[in-house]
User: What shape does this take?
Amino acid sequence: MKFYDCQFAPSPRRVRMFIAEKGLDIPVVEIDLRSGEHMKDPFRTINPQCTVPVLETKEGHHLTETVAIYRYLEELQPNPPLLGSTPLEKALVAEWDHRTEVEGFYAIAEALRNTAKGFKDRATTGPENFAQIPDLAARGRRRAELFFKTLDDRLGESRYLAGDFFSAADISTLAVVDFGAWIKLEIPEGHKNLKRWHDELSARPSAKL
Amino acid sequence: MKFYDCQFAPSPRRVRMFIAEKGLDIPVVEIDLRSGEHMKDPFRTINPQCTVPVLETKEGHHLTETVAIYRYLEELQPNPPLLGSTPLEKALVAEWDHRTEVEGFYAIAEALRNTAKGFKDRATTGPENFAQIPDLAARGRRRAELFFKTLDDRLGESRYLAGDFFSAADISTLAVVDFGAWIKLEIPEGHKNLKRWHDELSARPSAKL
Assistant: This one.
């Protein structure tokens, strides 16, 4: 196996943390997004969508979505379970992992990529260029703020996102909340549940990698 | 269990088809999106995100993301498997199901909701109103066209999306391709693989429900 990573980017951090929590040891290839290494061969042939993370599986297949990499590694190494144990737990991990990506990650990415100079004509990932849409940046920021409130409410109901057990949904959400710093979105003062959870998550050794 | 459905909407169709392929019999509650039933109580208390599908589980929990509903039902009723059998198959189903939602469904939804009069100030789902962004509609349409090409390329490599076995990724993608009609996006003439797959999928009894 081989893990194509980028140390400063939010999505590969999810996989890095998942691998560490599983106690797996997978060779890493660092891809330098700043120099555009992801847009050129040889990486572009490995992943035509030009994104990280990518996992090269034992079978030699390249998985390019975090949710697929999570699933593959969970099946190979079931302990500790990070995608839930009972049917309901598994469903709730899938639910919160998905919500955090769609309502959190994409919202912040919209806010960032549609304004920052470094993303001019690169408002989306992928091989095709798209112009920035400033109105979308404002909407993304507002959606991200709403999602932080959703997270705070949820974490008032349970210790972790999917229930009283640590899961991949927490890993994904930590990466998303920290990604907020890229658009200067901090956890608001009143979001005490989110702050409590963020402090706990950030203290895990896997969060520091 | 209880399944909150809406006959004409693309996302609940995924769950309807999944349930049929599993041979499950789950009581259905039809929610009328046209009259705004999803924005008002009692449904709004059931799902504060105001979206369908929703599955009320045996434990009385309301799952609101299709990916979570798929996972829950697969665990309850493993046969026939619709989320893959081997670790790699499971990962590839997760990968293509996710891609079809993000690159296909959201792209078409962007194109539709940011222009159609019926979605004025309702450019996203959810309880909060957002103004339409016409530039985003154009971008969504272009992204959807690119994804149809991605699907055609992929279906030139294998019979179904995740490999040579029918899966939930096919169910989701059928709903997405047919959702294209809402923005007058047809399968282009040259996309013979996608056409072949679409004909085969559309002939399944579960596709007609």
Remarks:
- Chain A touches chain B through 39 residues (CB under 8 Å).
- Chain A has two domains: 2-76, 87-208.
